[in-house]
Write a structure and sequence with these properties.
Strand content: 25-35%
CATH topology: GMP Synthetase, Chain A, domain 3
Number of domains: 1
CATH class: Alpha Beta
Oligomer: single chain
Structural class: alpha+beta
Largest sheet: 3 strands, mixed
């Protein structure tokens, strides 16, 4: 399961942090973010929204892992 994904609704793209409740940054997050940004760059969108599922947008990360 991806922890960051790209979705498109019409001309609006969404980068979604989808590992609630913490949405913690880490190696997997960085890899999935890279993939989602690439997907967004190839999409026919006019706007990009960054949002998160759950109560927290993000809680920091494990800097030793990256």
């Amino acid at each position: 399961m991806r922890v960051v994904k790209f979705e498109q609704t019409g001309a609006v793209g969404h980068l979604i942090l989808c590992d609630p409740p913490e949405n913690q940054l880490g190696r997997r997050w960085a890899d999935d973010l890279r993939r989602a940004v690439h997907e967004a760059s190839e999409a026919t969108i006019r706007a990009l929204v960054v949002r998160a599922e759950g109560p927290n947008f993000g809680t920091g990360g494990d800097v030793g892992c990256c």
